[in-house]
Amino acid sequence: MSTSAEHVSDASTAKExxxxxxxxxxxxxxxxxxxxxxxxxxAVTGTMAxxxxxxxxxxxxxxxxxxxxxxxxxLELVTQYPQAAxxxxxxxxxxxxxxxxxxxxxxxxxxxxxxxxxxANVLAQNFxxxxxxxxxxxxxxxxxxxxxxxxxxxxxxLINLRGVGESVKFNVVLTLIEVAxxxxxxxxxxxxxxxxxxxxxxxxVFTDYQDKGLFLAVTxxxxxxxxxxxxxxxxxxxxxxxxxxxxxxxxTMLTGLGIAVIFYMLVAVSVVTVLSPTELEGIxxxxxAALLEVVHKGSPDFPIDQIFPFLAVFAVANTALINMLxxxxxxxxxxxxxxxxxxxxxxxPVRCTPWAGIAxxxxxxxxxxxxxxxxxxxxxxANLSGTTAFLLLCVFAVVNLACLVLRRKRDVNRKVFxxxxxxxxxxxxxxxxxxxGPWVGRDIIQYQIAGALMAIGIVLWFVTWLINRRTNTPxxxxxxxxx
Length: 483
Hints:
- The chain is mostly helical.
- The protein is built from 17 helices and no strands.
- α5 (86-95) crosses α15 (380-409), α6 runs antiparallel to α13 and α6 (98-133) runs antiparallel to α15.
- The two termini are 19 Å apart.
């Protein structure tokens, strides 16, 4: 990075007003819980149950442990560098290599796109599931599900183009709806147990549906479950809007993760007590409709199953919108900083929304959905959610390594607000890489999708670098793109 670019960046930063610190511990907690809960549990529970059977709660617990270890590294870094740039900032501070910083930032972009594509397919499953439960139609084939998923992505693009006023108060409402939907699943499970129709003993039964053995099956399910635990890392981008973040963040982030895993484990218990082992194996192929099946079977005396699918649709839609907002804004930011082609930073003159970034991210998401759905034997939701988890596991491994590197660079006179215990970042980094590997049974298509997306970013980065070099244009500071 050139010295002139740093001076320009410093000067522009000095002129900009600071963000208003409106988040106290309660609002920050709701933001974190709302970010973690959402499409994840709807997308992966069926696949996990069809992998390990009754002990589906165990992979959720293990994924929580790995996520919490990584959260400790995030907390050490965010309290040392309370700036809204997340993983890209930490990679830049630790390694100082512009290309590495770009790879981390673009991997985050790709994870948002694949997560939104996952949510679109889960939404289609639950939307049609609601129509079926209400007796309005029969379940359509994959072609119709894909068409609705594509239509939803285009609708998100239009909403994004129009401009979305994000507010913490609105997030509170959405979080409460997400929590209410999961409470329905949990309530149905406990109701079934109270009526004697639920089998609580199934919770401790491992069923080797795929002949992998206990260790490999649980490991595979844990790598799948990780998709449901991500979201906590997004909260570091709110640090400049948080009151006294050095003191508030550690307790609040860990509390949010704890609340999420309690919900997930209770949902898992409800799933295995309501559904039979045969039904558990069957819901593996139900993709994002597993929880709908639980509510439908477990509440024959109440019409709650007619409402639940549409609550799920709302929760999943919110997750997708947030992901596409994040991805399009990051693309816009990288284009404005001269890291991606500058035309990707174009903004609508009236709406002031980044139309080029929105179009680019939407095209990638649509292409992903069509590509994965083109294989009739492919589990669309499992492969897209698995790709998201893989990308973020790689990012988390870099963050854990950055935590260790920055410890050595820490100013001894600077106050330390939070430190991850001893070698925990190293352990977390190794576990993240382990869960990202092919030995967990990850479908090769997930590596192909991730590789293709990153290759697109690298090609665009290289082209932009050549243009900047030829025109003698300085490259901006990547650590400012999420601010």
